[in-house]
Amino acid sequence: MPVGIFRVCLVVITAIVNHPLLFPKENGTVPESTEEIIQKMKEREESLRLEQLRLEREIAEQEATQKSLEKAPQVVEESKEEKVRWDMWTALSMVIFLLIELWRQDFQEGNWQDTGGEEDDMAVLGKAFKGVTFPDKAVLASFYEKRILGTTGDMARMREMVEGFADDLLEALRSVCNRDADMEVEDCMGVGSMYENWRVRKPFVCDLIVPFAPPEPYCFRSQTWCSGDSFPPDEQGYGTIKVCRADEDVTGCICDKTKLGEDMLCLLHSQANTTRPSSEMEDLLCFKNTEYLDADQVMKWFQIAVTKAWNRISHKYEFDLSFSLLDSPGALKIKFRSGKSIAFNLTPVVQYENSDVYFISHFPRSSLAADLPSSTHWFLTFAVYERRFIQLVSKTLPANACHVSCLQILSFLHGKQCSLTGPSGLTNYHLKTVMLHLLQARPSQDWAPGKLEARLQDMLKFLEKCLHEKKLYHFFIGNGKVPAELGFPIIFQRAEPLNLFRPFVLHRDVYRKTVDTFHEMLRNMSALINEYTVHIPLAQTNGIHKESL
């Protein structure tokens, strides 16, 4: 009997080990469909049921044999010896079966080879970083002066020109819109690398966001993933926007929840206001048959309004205006008669309550909004607070601090490497997030201009660590150390940290490509910098061209 129980325990252990939730493949891809998972679970359940029936039959046979053997002591002693030998072989077979099952799980779907290769890559990553010889201060200073400052001198003039034209275009847009039915457009704001003074690669593109609000008597009521209701992991960082009447109670009137008699009337709501036709909500740019603002409908309305506004003022300018990218609805391009052009993005946004956090419909030149759960889900952008934080911290840093220089150099190196080997999963926003974390972590004196080399190494090491762990947290979300001077909403400070590298956990091919690109960037760093560096005496660069792998 104890041996039978031991066998049953081994089978139970085998079933537990085979359960997909015991050993989750963190770096694996998401299953293709729920039906496939259910089918596999049913097949596994059937096999375990058959195994259980077989063991029950064996246990019953052993008990019957044991009862019959009790009448013959001599036969029992001989059978015990054979039984022990048989049980040992059976237990050994079950252990081997258990090991085979563990190996099969790793080998299944080719994950066995991929896992080993990924661990090797991580080991190579650390060795490659330790073997790279960084350019010294003189080379970095020469590179920054020639390649960075030499190409960003006209950014201020471009920003001034784009802002002036955008203001004129939005004023014309207000004049062509119906004030009683169309959305109310506010003044635009500049965000991103062009307004934080660290963009280095051409073409220079200004990013402008345009807040808008619904016509009276309507208002927007927003809900984010951290507002209390549970959101799936793939919807973290998103929110929804509901279009309501301004005189409606947020919690809802009891007349919506209780059937009133024919002779009873709600004193708060007239019969005309209890329901709204779907056509009215669609006119308010809502998703069909819902009260939630539709990002696609908003972008269509905005494009049509911009086109009408340009037709009204085009006679004042000696250039043409057109939409430049199909996958980025707010991307505009100014084309001069000389052949030159200026690109900028004008993207409508919705303000979150009374803060400077905004719901943005589309991210220009970015994959952040490529996999939106639906067109009623809006991503939140903290670009205004990011710009303010950089400005606030810059006041406490030494003169000519190197934080922006580090970000510019890293952005240039990564962009140059991507132009050689193809795009990777890293974006300029990831690089800026690394700088923001280090700005908060390191003392102000560590950002003196003479420490450019050390801080650039810090950023690369921090990025290497984040890639290894597949974790790079959003700077503001879940950060309780945000300066109070910014007036940042407390709800986002108390939220769970948002991992910007979560796509690397879900998409291993993108992760491997990103790691390979990072490797190549480290190995080619000295060559890329020296390519744009003026000649420096050999005594200052004797260690630059040596690279130990």
Automatic annotation (TrEMBL):
Similarity annotation: Belongs to the ITPRIP family.
Protein name, per record: Inositol 1,4,5-trisphosphate receptor-interacting protein
Keywords for the protein's UniProt record, in alphabetical order: Cell membrane, Coiled coil, Glycoprotein, Membrane, Nucleus, Signal, Transmembrane, Transmembrane helix
Species, as recorded: Chionis minor
Membrane-protein topology: Single-pass type I membrane protein
Position of the signal peptide: 1-15
Coiled coil: 38-72
Keyword Transmembrane helix: yes
Gene3D superfamilies, per database record: 1.10.1410.40, 3.30.460.90
Gene: Itprip
Domain Mab-21-like HhH/H2TH-like stretches: 404-477
Subcellular location: Cell membrane; Nucleus outer membrane
Pfam families in UniProt: Mab-21_C
InterPro entries: ITPRIP-like (IPR026250), Mab-21_HhH/H2TH-like (IPR046906), MAB21L/cGLR (IPR024810)
Origin: domain of life: Eukaryota
Keyword Ribonucleoprotein: no
Any one annotated GO CC term: nuclear outer membrane
